[in-house]
Amino acid sequence: MSANSPLSTKKPRLVVVGNGMVGHHFVEQIIEKGGHENFHITVFGEEPHLAYDRVHLSEYFTGKGAADLAMTDGTLYDDNGVQYFTNSLVTEIDRDNKQLLLQSGDSVSYDKLVLATGSYPFVPPIPGHKRDNTFVYRTLEDLDDIRDCAKQVSKGTVVGGGLLGLEAANALKNLGLETSVVEFAPRLMPVQLDEKGGSVLKEMIEGLDVTVYTDTATQEIVDGESSFHRMNFADGTHLETDLILFSAGIRPQDALAKQSGLEMGERGGITINNNCQTSDENVYAIGECALWNNSIYGLVAPGYTMAKAAAGHLLGDESISFTGADMSTKLKLLGCDVGSIGDAHAKSQGCKVFVYQDEIQQSYRKMVVSEDGQKLLGAVLVGDNSFYDTLLQYYLNAMDLPEQPQSLILPAMDGAPAALGADALPATASICSCHNVTKQDISDAVANGAMSVGDVKGITKAATGCGGCAALLKNVVDNELLSLGVEVSTDICEHFAFTRQDLYNIIKIEEIKSFAELLEKHGKGHGCEICKPAVGSILASVWNEYVLKKEHIVLQDTNDRFLGNMQKDGTYSIVPRIPGGEITPEKLIVLGEVAKEYKLYTKITGGQRIDLFGATLPQLPEIWTKLVNAGFETGQAYGKSLRTVKSCVGSTWCRFGVDDSMTMAVDLENRYKGLRSPHKIKFAVSGCTRECAEAQSKDIGVIATEGGWNLYVCGNGGMKPRHGDLFATDLDRETLIKYIDRVLMFYTKTADRLQRTSVWMDGLEGGLEYLQEVVIEDKLGMCSELDAAMDYVVDTFQCEWKTTLEDPEALKTFRQFVNYDGEDENVVFVEERDQIRPATEEEKQNLIAKVG
Amino acid sequence: MTMQWKLVCKQSDLVKGAGVAAMVNGQQVALFYVPEAESQIFAISNWDPFGKANVLSRGLVAHLQGEWTVASPLYKQHFVLSSGKCLEDDVTIPSWQAKLEGENVYIAES
Fold it and tell me: Of B97, B79, B101, B96, whose CA–CA distance to B88 is shortest?
């Protein structure tokens, strides 16, 4: 390491100690403001990894790797001249000489210092707390250790029933352990919830087979009889368990500050002012190690605000400061909604309380209002967070409550919807607290030309942090567009005043079987190139009739009409189906012979098939006769439908393979090959987590793991790459297919025309979680409908080429000219690398000149 | 001026609501059979001046703001079937009068 070497720059040195989420955000902020031009920046991190997303740490157990959670791969640092060192613990600050001492013995000088050292998990000093098989839950290394241990044992216990404790309990449950939670306080989540809320949550969690002990103090941990540990409780009872995870709160990591004599709080934490400066004006502290107004802020959003304030101050911009933060939170813990806003415990003087409880649905809601009933001071939600956004806005913006404030926590009865319209929010209302985006910021973005939620996300970063504000954001964006007079027309075209989803439902419910019938009943005019293929596709999705049937033929775009892919010169390419990319030598030879006979340009596609280019219209039926006779089926490369299921060879051949990805790929391709969908669909199946089939970049990705199949959905390569979202893990074959059936049918039913699954998912209100609720929990009660619809499509599959070859009427349309047997003279090929390619304009001129 | 009508093909050679290609005097013609339209038969050049290929007979027929058009299968420009005028650009492609008499399809030789 070169940290001690003389500097080649005269720029002042800015050193950041700590590379967690907040430390990283600080570097991002500095770079964004151009501060890397003013300072020579060096970052020291104690962990072996650069900053990663600790908020979503648990996903490390459900399939995400360290790379997925990483906040940077170092490129941002490298590109902007930021030096960084991982595995580098700073042990001392010498403030008199402005020097840092590292564990390695090196020393580094600084002009400005930022401490972003975070926090460490508090482990109660119970006798036995250092025994083997005891853990904390903070870093990726902790998680690796927990996972290794969990493989050997069957019972796990979390000490601490707060927010992090329950998160950790969920993780243990996901690792397959019989899980218990032991909380010292009389209720779960004592900071956020009141007594009743805590007890409702306890009931819900116990319903999920997690044993909860509240009001329970552990006196000692000793050898167990049936398990590795025995926890002896103060009331004389005990619990046997194999693994203990301490999650009893956090403490600021402030040892450096203490050693160097910076001013600290009585119970720890580095005291800072509104600019995040410590008692030494050259030293800043941000995040969980900092103490502002005697409070530690253990959430990421306030940490980000501190990072912004410190970066601003360092660069002479005092307009941003840290003046406290709202600690309201909304979470899903072990699948249970929990929300807490402001004064959850009703401690404000004279406050009044509304409570609603439903023991059947297991939900509890409390509102704390001011003495005069005008303002919302706090709230507790357990079981249903759909009320959270509206309550939070009333609270944050100190808005006057409606006449009957209780309506805000009552279930929606007939009539009165309680949700707060975007209209009613003040311009200063904070919509996204992670990135500090206000309603005004969104108005500005829309006024400057943003036309969709996607645009606004790109410009403001709103809803790209925790994503909790996505629904509210859409509401605000739509409202802004409306107020600008932008008509948000969702009509598919001038012939149908409906969305694609409306048309799908109409066709299905009214059992409409043709375009003419739909137009007569629900449209006007005669149709166009937008509505015709869209309706053609929906009719095929729902009724799955032969696409070249007389009444459907005029609906098909040229590729679907001639069952080939039109190329730039008007010739077609041909792609037979090769399920999973698996092909016998005999069939491979047939393809070679056909290509040779018709002089077709031959290329292997990215989807593991073979594409034959340069066939003229009349050649298509001739070629397909040969292919169908050899046992090939249409590959539907021309259709908005399933393209390919890419695969590796899997456990059959590969020495790393965990399961038989090849058979799975072939079966999936054969199951879904007939489905017409809003856009093309690509699958891949990998036989192990090495992921050679690149399944995470596909609409549907399947990866074999030791515990079963992991399902990823809505990935995309191409122009706008998107990693698939991990939808479910460790599935058996039957469940995997059931989920894919439903995801695909729900997409087919609800997406816009020509909308890929990735864009559909980004626009889906509620996102992945919503899709999981629809597909896994049957939230909309439509799973049986989705299952039946997919079974119908699978049962009625036909190879369109086979049907066409048997239909003289359809074959008639494959003539080059209706009155002449000649060829299109504009189709001219030249040779390149021993194959044909279309001649360029210049080459055509030359050829004509030569002939002439 | 008397119009010279040339017999091109039979009605049964056409596809209702779509186009077919014909060769007339060495020129490729796209014939569209639109029973809902007053003239029923339209004839325009098969040559797409943007895509530079003979493909217009294979485009989708679209009825836009009262006019019958075809959308090119290559880059989706619309051409008015009665006049050959392009809706997106200042281009007009050749067009001919056409008619259906009994079983026979004729186009006018200018």
Answer: B79
> Nearest-CA neighbor of A357 among A197, A508, A228, A552?
A197
Q: Is residue A592 part of a domain?
A: no
Residues A69 and A185 in one domain: no
Q: Which amino acid is at A20?
A: G
DSSP letter, residue A401:
P
DSSP string, A93-124: EETTTTEEEETTS-EEE-SEEEE---EEE---
The CATH number covering residue A89 comes to 3.50.50.60
One domain for residues A89 and A109? yes
Q: What is the pLDDT of residues A231-245, one digit of tens each?
A: 999 999 999 999 999
pLDDT in tens, A636-650: 999 999 999 999 999
Helix orientation angle between A733-750 and A500-509, rounded to the nearest 10 degrees = 110
Residue type, A102: L
- Mark whether A645 and A780 lie in a shared domain: yes
Q: Is residue A60 part of a domain?
A: yes
**Distance between CA atoms of residues A140 and A5, nearest Å:** 32
Interface pTM (ipTM) of the complex?
0.95
Residues 6+ apart with CB under 8 A from A375: A369, A394, A398, A399, A400, A401
Retrieve residue A220's tokens.
């000692």
CATH dotted code for B4-109: 2.102.10.10
Query: Are residues B18 and A561, on separate chains, in Cβ contact within 8 Å?
Result: yes
What's the token pair of residue A515?
A: 């375009």
Residue pairs spanning A and B at CB distance below 8 A: 90
Angle, to 10 degrees, between the axis of helix A470-483 and the axis of helix A388-396? Answer: 70
Query: Is there a single domain that holds both residue A772 and residue A653?
Result: yes
3-class DSSP assignment, residue B110: coil
Chain A interface with B: residues with Cβ < 8 Å: 494-495, 525-530, 532-533, 550, 553-554, 557-559, 561-562, 566, 568-570, 812-813, 815-820, 822, 824, 826, 841
> Domain range for residue A741?
640-795
Q: What pTM value is reported for the model?
A: 0.61
A765: exposed, middle or buried (Cβ count in 10 Å: 0-12, 13-18, 19+): exposed
Among B25, B54, B78, B100, the residue to mutate for chain A (most A Cβ within 10 A): B54
